[in-house]
Write a structure and sequence with these properties.
Its EC number is 1.2.4.1. Keywords: Oxidoreductase, Thiamine pyrophosphate. With 377 residues, the protein is α/β, with parallel strands linked by helices. It folds into two domains: 344 residues, Thiamin diphosphate (ThDP)-binding fold, Pyr/PP domains (Rossmann fold); 29 residues, no CATH class. The chain has a six-stranded mixed sheet, with helices on both faces. A three-stranded antiparallel sheet has the order 2-3-5. Strands 9-10 form a two-stranded antiparallel ribbon. The radius of gyration is 21 Å and the shape is globular.
Length: 377
Amino acid sequence: MASLARLRSPLFRRIFRQPLARALQTSADTTQLQDKPSDAKPFTVKLHDETFHGYKTDTPSLEVEVSKSMLIEMYKKMTLMRRMEMAADALYKAKLIRGFCHLAIGQEAVSVGMHNAMSWDDLLITSYRCHPFAVLRGGTIRGVISELLGRQDGMSNGKGGSMHIFTPRFFGGNGIVGAQVPLGAGLALAQKYNEKKNATFTMYGDGAANQGQVFESFNMAKLWNLPCIFVCENNKYGMGTSAERSSMNTQYFTRGDAIPGIQANGMDIIACYQAAKFARDMSDPGTTYRTRDEVQRMRSTQDPIRGLQRYIEDWGLASEDELKQFDKDARAEVEEAVEEAKKSPFPDLHDFWSDIYYKGTEPAFMRGREREEVHHY
């Protein structure tokens, strides 16, 4: 069954409020401890009462079973993703990365939370803030950074760039707004056709929410009951345009017609994990447009990494020194990957004739930019 999830943050847009509507909780650290935490056994925490809103479905349970090892691993992954994106930002500003480079700083709760709720054989496709997903779903930091630098060691051999990175479980990274949504529905169709017991997470941003192909995909997914989970990662702006200026209805989780939807707090990683897990079970298988004050407020009060850090410290799962060491380890790992990526050579001119066709299906020859420029396979 297709399902529709919306992960909202204040990097996940202001909600369209009707009179007396309840506002979604978007703080990163409002989850409360229910049981005494244990090093060896899982324990229960309770999310804020307004963590989820539902449309044509019950909402996920606010009580979530977690463990020390799970939360520590989540923190390490979030920190590592943040460090990778910060390194990419520095390389872009140094003009070592050319073209587009869309970062996901501040949205780590979504990528890491969803990844932890997915099975390893589930598939995922997204738009262009894709670097964390590329690593989490089978890639490497070195492979991502090399690709951003246009080097041969990149995950697309240096020819794809920021928006075209793939693994067997991750289908991009897609640069055309909304174009990945029908592709995601197609992946889910293939899973159903081949009788796979997995789901496809099809992600798009609020800026793509009004695309016709998105609604066409909703229709086909529901008509054929595909194992597709549509996720609107709402960061308040689409190419610098705020949601309220572009969308009559910014409650994106209600826009799937007959598809049930969930709105979740995208700044709390435990909420993201619980929402993705719930949706999977249902399926059955850049700052120029933000004011300086807004950016500072988000960093100081709603940073998802700081929210998880507070949980870990308050619940006695790790000390401040241990968390600082995790951050140092992440920085060192990213710095090593960056240096290795810089050593990788640029693609050879001959390489530009490859990867155009699937191996074994190439034509006998191909013309280049001019009539006389011909490559024979």
